[in-house]
Amino acid sequence: MRGRDDRRALTRSTPPWLTVFALAFTGLCSAYMFTLVVPIQAELPHLLDADRADTAWVVTITLLVSACATPISGRLGDMYGKRRIVLVLIVMLILGSAVAALSATIGGVILGRALQGATMGVLPLGIAIMRDVLPVARLGTAVAFMSATMGVGGALGMPVSALIVEHLDWHMLFWAAALLGVIGFVLVLLFVPPSTLRTPARFDFVGALGLAAGLVGVLLAISRGADWGWTSPATLGSGLGGIAVLLLWGWYQLRAKEPLLDLRVAARPAVLYTNLAGIGMGFALFGTNVTLPQMLELPGDSEAGFGLSMFVTSLVVMPSGLMMMVISPLSGWFERRLGARLMLACGTLAVGAAYGLLLVWNDEVWHVFVANTMVGIGIGLSFAAMPMLIMRSVPAHETGASNGINALFRSLGTASAAAVMAAVLAAMTVDHDGIPVPSSTAFEVCFWLGAGAALGAALLTAFIPRHPHADRPSIPDRD
């Protein structure tokens, strides 16, 4: 009875659609942080008067902080209130944006980007809040919409960033991010009910530090391996050291009285295979983000390029994000009738088919447009299905942390795609006016890798149980 009273208290004064809108807006803002600096990435050494190896940290630090902050913020939300932690993360976004906007040196921009990266934790927290406050009939559509923001924010943000860079000073990118953060803070403060579903516990600081150290080691090896050399002492030391720390962390978590994450829950087949599929779909999604813009922007007389401007390129790839937004309400309909498991399978196969299309037809802009649109459909279905599968398999007090782990696995996929695709495109080049540019074969290899990741995720869906159950399931099964 206590749980029902809490739910009534949560939904009494705020229309559900306003809560969903506020949370989805924060999700869009956090996802936008990953493509915020894409238009100026190549110019950062000149703008910041720094080496290219140093300016790479402007992108890398956001990835590292987001990966560490996502599961930790999920646990904090379960303990101290999800809305409260969402507001804290948005404040970090605003503060980081202001720091970067006021900086003219590499150190200040890296610090600001690190604070921006922490905001990715609002995605799993937003999904967990929706489970707390929404009726079951509306939950599938709302979760689909929130999940889609991970792709929509980046896709819609690229043309905005391109326009800002073309017409204004580059610092305005960060002032625009700060303004979005302020709007998001006000929306959450006004329209997201305070969290009353909490898990009283002592925060596991040792577990948080261990998880962060292990993730930083692994992600450093993945994201910087191409620059450092895949067999260099720095790459091997970071990667193997990170794995060793994570293994020790897992041993500690299984023995801690109040662990940061309950690994026994995470090891349930429905949760485990969904998370593993998340790696594949994160890889497939970011694979197109890395390869297609480069293909479209390469000189038209090169072996594989189309010679489009950055703004036109962003318009060609933007429909992927728009399709994710369109698919969101349809995902709720599919989930209610077919079940999340089948919806995940359809999404993974759609992305695999998109890569197959690129392998056969990639010599016209409209080929890229159609394939990227198919990726948007597949990612929209997949990212909507995964949180639903997770929430059916974990108790209510583990929702925030468990969704954080799922977002972390997707981040591992995106980080791997960024490193692997970049390494392939850098290694397989042809000469164009004295400058090495990626060859058509390099793009084909990348497309094969993306197809393999998507089909691997599709295979993993076969191992997800048809009727997963949580300790106290609050979402009925439909599979």
Automatic annotation (TrEMBL):
Residues 19-469 form the Major facilitator superfamily (MFS) profile domain. InterPro entries: MFS, MFS_dom, MFS_trans_sf. The chain crosses the membrane at residues 20-40, 55-73, 85-104, 110-130, 142-164, 170-191, 203-222, 228-249, 270-292, 304-326, 338-360, 366-386, 407-430, 442-464. One of its GO terms (cellular component) is plasma membrane. It is a multi-pass membrane protein. It is found in: Cell membrane. GO terms for molecular function: transmembrane transporter activity. CDD domains: MFS_MMR_MDR_like (cd17504). Its main location: membrane. Keywords: Membrane, Transmembrane, Transmembrane helix, Transport. This is MFS transporter.
